[in-house]
Design a protein that fits this description.
The protein has about 650 residues and is α/β, with parallel strands linked by helices. It is about 45% helix and about 10% strand.
Amino acid sequence: MGVTVIEELPKTGFLKFRHDQLFQVRKLFNLEKPGRVKEAIELLREWLEKQDHFNKKDFSDAYLELLLITSKGSVEHAKSRIDKLCTYRTIWPQFFTAIDINSFKENFKIFNSLVLPEVTEDYSRVNIFKINSNVPLQADIVLTYIKFSIIVCEYCKVHDYPSGFIVVLDYQDVNLLDLLAILSPAQIQQMVNLYMEGFGMRIRGIHLITTSKVSDALISLLKQVMSKKIGSRIHVHRNHESLYDFIPKKILPVDYGGDAVPLSEMMEDFLQELSKKEHIEYMKEIQSATVDLKKKPKDSTIDEMAMTGSFRSLTATPGIPLFQHFQKIFFIMGVTVIEELPVRGFFKVKPDQLYEVRKLFNLEKPERIKEAIQLLKDWLQKQDYFNKKDYPDEYLERLLILNKGSVERAKSCFDKLCTFRTIWPQYFTAVDINSFREYFKVFNSIALPDVTPEYARVNLFKINSNVPLGADLIKEYIKYSIILCEYMKKYDYPNGFVIMLDYRDVNLLDLLAILSPSQLQQMVHLYMGGFGMRIQGVHLITKSKVSDAIVSLAKQVVSKKLADRLHVHRSLDTLYDFIPKKMLPAEYGGDAEPFDVMMENFFKELGSNDHIEYMKETQQATVDLSKKPKDGAIDDYMGMSGSFRTLSVD
């Protein structure tokens, strides 16, 4: 066969290669056998000859081999790459006409753009793009940079042999708002297509160096026009130190704390390389690599290239498109999401709980949480009837989690809780659990320290034996439970709640005597509607046959879905099918500490000065009923027979 493969990598005056690079890069793409490379090149040649729309077909074997390398050894990908690049040269000729870098001398006062001489350990070539300080950014700089970058890409396409590319964007000396003012999403999308689809740049990582908070907005833009895989490879560095985790210091310029020559010296050497007569002649020759659009098969690619905002219209009014696009993003930049779950003295969290719970509700991306929090903030400010509107971001994030990531459900939940505080003030006035000490002889109620494998929080309510159940017990329990709920709302991050009702030591007829369906209905509204408790299961522990009456009563006031989650346990053994033994108190056959120790520790947490002060603060979160829109709900809550206003025994 007449095909010639590359025997050794070209030795230019600038690019350097590792001794085993030729073999190792080929090996990455299953091209280590010379016969495989020759076969692939021959297939490309045969295909080229059959394509009537190409105006140039006499590409060298070395060019086609490098084309295969940038296409991961795939002949089909290589066909697509050369077709797209030749098409780009045809429909965007103004960006491919530059052949001599001397025409860009004035622009190098604004930016520097070069590839580093050395490759990384995995044979990637590093591209650095740096914008210099104190130079105004004009709208035409984007067009100018693209023209220069094409000269660089053409050089790498015939002289380099990398496994991929790492892009470093040094924006330390530029105001990112000035940069965003001359960019648009469509322009960035087209650049991505040009570099990655046309020139076949396989991006191994994008590293943005800046201390600006506006970087969040820029990354959001990049992620919208790149694949999820490339989006996950974007990193922001506030200093050079973190950059070394990705790029060896020894290959970086001394300006970046590296061991190589200064960037200015490196840039000068690179420009000399691009200015060589042989490269200028190559740039002239490659301009003929275009297509005849009349002969080119129709495939919608050309229509997509000509979209509004493409390179043909890079002179669009500067600033306006991007700032309109980013108005929302800039607005949410001040929103703070929870970075890690607080380690309180009582609650324990799993290492992956924050991420996994967010993921359940499609909130694993911080941008999504920020946007949702900002929507809640905007809505809060517009509601004249709320007496308190200054909530921390983490409070609103937890509100979203309790409502499965739904902003609308979070609004409803928040509105209801503030309304309940207003129409039932007597149940929200308690701030210190010490006022309930006498009632703890009757009942105990805590949230267990550990969560279930599904990240649900278990709440245990136990009525003690041989203690008369007074008519005021329900009212006092509700007051205490609100302190507990407010604590969990501030510090917990669960995927719902599991309720344990331990009625083994009580006569259920006595309990039924002080309960009514309307009271249960109101408690359901308060806990589930107001505090957003998503119940994963209710477990009633008792041997009494009266439990059937309790369950029947409960099913009258809860949804069918929740009713299906009601379980009665005659012994503890069946409870373990739902709640792991290791997290239950010793009295329940579990591996955790005794219940009374757990209870005492929990009381210390609820009785802390921090929580008491927080409880006082929440009392302001009420509504002005005279301003609140009429929706019938308040009348339902206040007028229902047996509501909290009339908790007397039926």
